[in-house]
């Protein structure tokens, strides 16, 4: 099932999420829905708070061409970040049609729980590294616009308020 994606500003996008205590059937369903929602958007990542679920769950697939690699990360934890930084023009499904350069560590090592309950660990680089950091920020209530100056952030927020007003009028 495709779930509606929350649009900024929304208080749920500004709050830290709760750890997942147990991998239940509901969590399996949430992960399935999140992947379906992400692919349909289309996007390369999605975090649970973006669909209004305040749990530490994210999905991603940064393969643009070729076979899909859907990933589900539960309770992700940053183990290491490179000193080397990279700049990527980021977007966000909760901030449609707005893009800005964000500087982040070029490589990160992350540990997480998978849907089968096993602990996984991987070192991410390139777009995968940017994406996993963007999604982990969502779990802390942080958006990519929080890396921008106050004027740019305000301008984007105003655009989103207008967009939400227009969408509400159409409903
Ligand atoms: O978390 C999100 O809002 C999803 C976001 C993830 C992201 C994008 C760029 C850099 C870091 C993280 C998106 O997927 S925005 C859409 C997007 O980037 C995209 C869509 C279709 C094809 C390729 C990229
Ligand atoms: Zn986002």
Tell me about this structure.
The structure is a single chain. By secondary structure, this protein is an alpha+beta fold. It has a single domain (11-170), classed as Alpha-Beta Complex (Peptide Deformylase), CATH 3.90.45. It contains three helices and seven strands. The chain has helices spanning 25-40, 126-139, 150-170; strands spanning 45-47, 57-60, 71-81, 85-92, 95-105, 107-113, 119-125. It has a five-stranded antiparallel β-sheet with strand order 1-2-3-6-7. A two-stranded antiparallel ribbon has the order 4-5. The chain is globular. The protein starts with 24 loop residues before the first helix and ends with a helix. The mean pLDDT is 98. The structure holds ligand K1U and zinc ion (ZN). Ligand K1U binds next to strand 1, strand 4 and helix 2.
Q: What tags apply to this protein structure?
A:
171 residues, alpha+beta, Peptide Deformylase, five-stranded antiparallel β-sheet, two-stranded antiparallel sheet, 3 helices, globular, binds ligand K1U, binds zinc ion
Summarize the structure.
The protein has 171 residues and is α+β, with helices and mostly antiparallel strands. The protein has helices at 25-40, 126-139, 150-170, and strands at residues 45-47, 57-60, 71-81, 85-92, 95-105, 107-113, 119-125.
